[in-house]
Amino acid sequence: MITIDDIEDMTCLTRAEITAIAEHEHVGEMDAALLGEYLMHVHHGAYRVNEMICEDIRTCLHRGQTLRARELFAVLQAFVADHPEAARG
């Protein structure tokens, strides 16, 4: 059986990035990993992942979930460091 660890090893995304996509899209981690991997290979896809994480940060801040917003900000920083094209769009 394929696990989320196996899927993560096959993508260019981290577990935290996959979790952020899953949270944003309201899907399971397996589906989020597949979506994220797809997005990372299409034009402006990395920027779309960046937008998803930013939208989740804003949502958390509006809800007063500052700890989760900080966690997502750390995910965003790591994502942009690994994928600089995400910041340029």
Tell me about this structure:
- This protein has one domain (4-88).
- It has helices at 4-10, 15-25, 29-39, 45-63, 66-82, 85-88.
- Helix content is 78%, strand content 0%.
- With 89 residues, it is an all-alpha fold.
- It is globular and about 40 Å long.
- It starts with a helix and ends with a helix.
- The protein is built from six helices and no strands.
Keywords:
mainly alpha, 89 residues
Please count the helical segments: 6
What kind of sheet is the major sheet? none
SSE sequence, one letter per element: HHHHHH
Between the first and last Cα atoms, what is the distance in angstroms? 36 Å
- Estimate percent helicity: over 70%
The overall pLDDT, averaged over residues, is 93
What is the beta-strand fraction?
under 5%
Report the radius of gyration as a whole number of Å.
Answer: 12 Å
Structural class by secondary-structure content: mainly alpha
The total count of strands amounts to 0
Summarize this entry quickly.
The protein has 89 residues and is mainly α. It has helices at residues 4-10, 15-25, 29-39, 45-63, 66-82, 85-88.
List strands and helices in order, with pairings.
Elements (H helix, E strand, L loop, with lengths): L3 H7 L4 H11 L3 H11 L5 H19 L2 H17 L2 H4 L1
